[in-house]
Amino acid sequence: MIADFLRRLTESPPEALPDPDARLALTALLVRLARADNVFTAQERTRIQNIVCERYGLDRAGAEALVVEAEAVEREAPDTVRFTRAIKDAVDYDDRIGVIEAMWAVVLVDGHRDDEEDALLRMVAPLLGVNDRDSNLARRRVEARFST
């Protein structure tokens, strides 16, 4: 199953990802970001679950199942460059900005910007085709949303 998903994610030419694949791809990318510092905290896991609950209308059990599957995919996924390129080619720009916002929400969950997570996000944003200005605005929106 994971091999089939990864094949669909990286095959050429890219086509729009089916909804379940898009969900899994985003969640796996969030897991990869959370693991960038070699620590996947309960706080990060909860934030990812909250993101997928809100974004996809899942209940807690559905969100947990998606995160567990995403963890397995993330372990087996190719390098981040090919992974994000597939998402970029399959997802509209506005939705990619939403992906960046979700990523910033994971990075900032503990109140500070971890160097490894920050570096990965800064690498991924242009790979997703999101410019620095829009990534910065996404970060500010996330900071404003979670600071109140």
From TrEMBL:
Origin: domain of life: Bacteria
UniProt cross-references to CDD domains, sorted A to Z: terB_like_2 (cd07313)
SUPFAM superfamilies xrefs: TerB-like
Domain Co-chaperone DjlA N-terminal positions: 23-139
InterPro entries per UniProt: DjlA_N (IPR007791), TerB-like (IPR029024)
Any coiled-coil regions, as ranges: none
Position of the signal peptide: none
Protein name as annotated: TerB family tellurite resistance protein
Species assigned in the record: Palleronia sediminis
